[in-house]
Design goal:
- By secondary structure, this protein is an alpha+beta fold.
- Helices cover 38% and strands 11% of the residues.
- Strands 1-2 form a two-stranded antiparallel sheet.
- A hairpin with a 3-residue loop joins strand 1 (82-87) and strand 2 (91-96).
- It is rod-shaped and about 90 Å long.
- It starts with 17 loop residues before the first helix and ends with a helix.
- 4% of the residues are buried.
Length: 113
């Protein structure tokens, strides 16, 4: 006959606040992070983290985290000459010196039409 173990007490589900969910999801999807490792650390299954991420992104569609950084200075030797061609007031084309001549000619022919 098989043995059965009875665990007394009230089995409770853990409750996670929205902030805790956001922190766990952010940690799991940080650069270089592993979802499985973060799940083990939080004592969750990885699927739960994916479900939280889907639920958190569904509440704010169209928004993403943006990091604004100062532009890197361009060294003087990296600046290449360019030709700027104006087609009246309708179009203006800047052709860098690195562009192949046949491609530049094709662009100008297309705009001339």
């Amino acid at each position: 006959m098989a043995q059965v173990q009875v665990i007394p007490g009230v089995a409770r589900r853990r409750r996670w606040s929205q902030d805790q969910k956001r922190e766990i999801v952010a940690a799991a999807f940080a650069p270089g992070a592993s979802v499985a490792a973060v799940a083990r650390q939080a004592d969750l299954c990885p699927g739960q983290i994916y479900r939280w991420r889907r639920a958190l992104t569904a509440t704010a569609p169209g928004f993403a985290q943006v990091v604004v950084a100062a532009p890197e200075p361009v060294p003087a030797e990296a600046v290449r000459p360019a030709i700027e061609v104006a087609f009246g007031d309708t179009a203006r084309v800047r052709i860098p010196g690195s562009m192949p001549p046949d491609l530049a000619a094709a662009v100008l022919r297309a705009l001339r039409r």
